[in-house]
Amino acid sequence: xxxxxxxxxxxxxxxxxxxxxxxxxxxxxxxxxxxxxxxxxxxxxxxxxxxxxxxxxxxxxxxxxxxxxxxxxxxxxxxxxxxxxxxxxxxxxxxxxxxxxxxxxxxxxxxxxxxx
Length: 116
Ligand code: FES
Known about the structure:
The chain has about 120 residues and is mainly beta. Helices cover about 10% and strands about 35% of the residues. The chain is built from one helix and eleven strands, in the order ββββββββαβββ.
């Protein structure tokens, strides 16, 4: 299908998994498959190398910003030294109210996942 990117076997997308598929980070957060654009809104860290936390948020591998994968919005700003800058996390989160991560749709066909 045009505008689809193959993710891989559906059986490999177990809860907690995050994979790269074209411009998307595709994962499984508590049994819900998701696809969001890969570049963190902070400094463009690759979210396909991120992880899923206990609340089902996608965590950036660079500075620990967390995203709600259903909305694409940042729910926790960058951590470490960035967390010490007054207001910085709030500004980053507000930015994603206007510019959330893009979201794709994950579909399964013949035991293979695709994002469109
Ligand atoms: S690049 Fe993602 S939190 Fe900094």
